[in-house]
Amino acid sequence: MTVRVRFAPSPTGHLHVGGARTALFNWLFARKMGGTFILRIEDTDRERSDPAMTKGILEAMSWMGLDWDEGPYYQSERLDRYRDLAQTLEEGGHAYRCFCSPEQLASLRAEASASGVGWKYPRTCLSLDKKQVRERLDSGETAALRFRVPDGRVRFDDLVFGEITKGLDEVEDFVLLRSDGHPTYHLSVVADDLDMEITHVLRGADHISNTPKQILLFDALEAPRPQFVHVPLILGPDRSRLSKRHGATSVLAYRDQGILPEAFDNLLALMGWSDGTDQEIFDTRRLIEAFSLEGISKADAVFDPDKLAWFNGQYINALSPEALSRCLVPVLEDTGIWEERFDTTDRAWFLSLIELIRPRFRSLQALAREVRTYSGVSVEYEPAALRRFMSDSRLEEYLPELALRLETVDPFDLHGVEETLRALAAELEVKAGLLINAARVSLTGKAVAPGIFDVMVVLGRDKTVDRLRRAVSAL
RNA sequence: GGCCCCAUCGUCUAGUGGUUUAGGACGUAGCCCUCUCAAGGCUAAAACACGGGUUCGACUCCCGUUGGGGCUACCA
Questions:
Q1: A400-411 in b/e burial notation, b at 16+ Cβ within 10 A?
Q2: So what's the ipTM on this one?
């Protein structure tokens, strides 16, 4: 039997890290097993669904590299199918009409909870006979369709959580079809999982409590149950459900912060899953190889932005310069740095620049900003850097002298520039550090930068000399 | 409140009765490297929630307590 899994977000919000992790696990499992990954949009709630959200979800998944084999299917296009199934259930005696108004039920529920009593639908309409139902329907009254929950106990074996049981006396006769004829979640999910021949329902653990209801539906329909695989939830730093107040939770927000999809996927995969080894870095290929349902844990996990940043730094440094530059160029274009500030389009130069600065940065944005330092025509001096390394008045003579000597160094390479600077320092009887640090501020405007000789070589002779001379006027 | 589920360093986790003075990673601190800052290397502090059992022996099994999460809608 080939594996068929699905990711079924509802377009009522952005794809957040929890949903993304569920999508990733589904995708990994499908790819690992040579199965099929299906994308389904659960948009039966017309009021809250938004096509713009669907667009964002698809965009986020594509960014993460999660390609789907079928879909996206839209539940809003399958309404007739759900109604057919509802009818089947009703005819089979598994469902009945309910004329109680939502308002009425809500107030009853409120009363019950105020007095601290548990509440479930009291089956008011179950006692209605066929004739009464017919009459009220014919007179134009609207009714919801409720599932008639049988007695007993439901049990199922979750592939992560093991055996889970639930007494049916705790489950109320839930609504299948709203009074406007629209299906609810439980009906549409079961119908789709059935029709799409889903073999493994892999979803968030928040659905464990829903599973008994859905199993009841599968059973009533005399359909085979899929395997259930519930994955623990991702929590915010305060261990509560991830929400807006925890900062960025949307996948696209991480993309926009300069996170690489590989790093994002890597972190997500390690939340609630482990291959049992000490390995931390898994590129997508390795992830597929190593992934297994057995490695999924039961405990909820707190999302750690610091570790994401670390992973991102790892990938920024591990990517080939070409691959990294492909990621970086769009960022440079977005921020306008590419067009406005580049006075060279020399590819080899760009790659060597990236190579030089990348160990220092953990996001594409930060890397892009740093590119500006080397590509621009002018230098922006940081006051703190000036104060720290440029306060020595002798620099007024030393810097032009250094520039003069560098003008004639041949070849202008790592060895050449270093020799020149150190020789000058020796002649002047000053520490090389004085010239080195002053040169750093002169060339980059900053107190923090890569090794100064590397910087000189990357900048090239003309820019180096020019910036050294200009710096004197900034003293 | 009721029901369901979970519980190892601050965080992500390894660990499936003895191999454990509980391992790795992030973060934190220190050291090395060094022209600054990173990166890298080394080191340190840091956890089995608690109480009962079971057992020759429990982080590992069982029960309870506590804590946390989920569900409890004509949302999904």
A1: eebbebbeebee
A2: 0.95
